[in-house]
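Chapter summary example.
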Amino acid sequence: MSRRAVTIGVDLGGTKVATALLGEHGELIASKEASTGYGVTPRAVISQIVQDIENLCRTPSENAVLGIGVGAAGQVDSTTGVIRASSNLGWENVALKKELEQLLSLPVLVINDVQAAAWGEWKQGAGQGASDMACLFVGTGIGGGIISRDSLLSGSSGSAGEFGHTVIDRNGPLCRCGRHGCLEAFAGGWGIASRAQEAVTKDPEIGANLLNLAKGLCESITASTVSQAARKGDPLARRIVIETGEALSLGIASIVNTFNPKIVVLGGGVIEGLPELINMVKEQVSRYALPSAVEGLRIRKATLKSMAGAIGAAMLARERFGISDMLEDI
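The structure predicted for these 330 residues follows.
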């Protein structure tokens, strides 16, 4: 009996590990998500990844695992598979590729998690059909990926797509990277929360609704709090949402001018919580981008949600290891 050719994708983030099992045509066969915590040791997380992969492939006689792709949060050297630094994981210089290959005896690809998610959206999500696509994920922070002429741009050191640190106002708020006016400081989840907390501190009366939702604790105001208040028509929350939409539009206009994509895909927790941001961007990007760059441009919401990174990592593994060619030998 011939075995089914499968690939594994893993999305390793700061709070969860998502694992996907894909069939020989890229179809999702099974998936699993498990929680992690900040500061968990690499050994513990690697053990969990191995266990999750083994659980998804409980019938090895039926499955021929041809390769594994891992999308990891942080700065990744995609050539060596070393996670050089990850503030989300609390890791430095972890040789993830080497460790997994030794434990699983399979080829492993390690890449930045948001680049993997962008590839997933391009292959199976909202970016399908476009040779040139930009993908922006707006969550606690902001990151993304670029597909140019059907190829993923990773950059000379694997850091391409750090759109959150595009400076849109040099006199703007301090970013966590140490610079002022980054897109993330305006539109990332932590940036939205920070701006809301600052406004409430300056004028508690205007911020009364936000304080009430946060049970009276200014430091407990989050992007989700702003989203809830905005849906109820709170003026301060609505103002912050409008400012966030303008900041995103400025940042995306720079991306559009630079890369001239056919499709821009927007995803992440902030987009899920404030879906109206997509229409704001659609309306405003043309104000800031060159007419030739926005001609025919489509802006879409991401569709793969929490599995985008795992699916994208698995699909990248298929591409990098020549898995399409290997199928004939099984």
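To summarize the output: Residues 188 and 207 are 20 Å apart (CA to CA).
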